[in-house]
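Internal tracking record. Fields below are filled automatically when a chain is submitted to the structure queue. Please do not edit lines marked as system-generated. If the sequence contains nonstandard residues, flag them in the REMARKS field before resubmitting.
Queue: standard
Priority: normal
Entity type: single polypeptide chain
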Amino acid sequence: MWVTQAVLPHLRAQGSGHIIQVSSIAGVFSLPGLGLYHASKFGLEGFTASLAAEVKEFGIKVTLVEPAGYATDWAGPSAVHAARLPAYDNVRAAMARPAGKRGDPSATRAAILHVVDAEEPPLRIFFGRARSG
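SYSTEM-GENERATED OUTPUT FOLLOWS
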């Protein structure tokens, strides 16, 4: 949000530009146990859609990149977890199935550059495959 706010005066002055927001497929569906994460992604969805409508007349394009699961440390040692409550053991067990093959984050580089250079880029672009609950 702060980077977007800082760059908008420059893009408006030049009458063009393209803002790329990076979210997650988690902005369009929800899984148990990730409510705050999903809320942040749903919020970015709304912010980006609003922003696109607000800046279109200035020649500024906006795209929201929504990747599915990537091979990163997302749920690894860097993650912060709440204390586990026994009441939710069944929910955790249901979600504990293998994640399957994860995408390579560096593989999207060329695709994002293609979107940036597009004459009419999409508002949203999804990468990868998602599994739902």
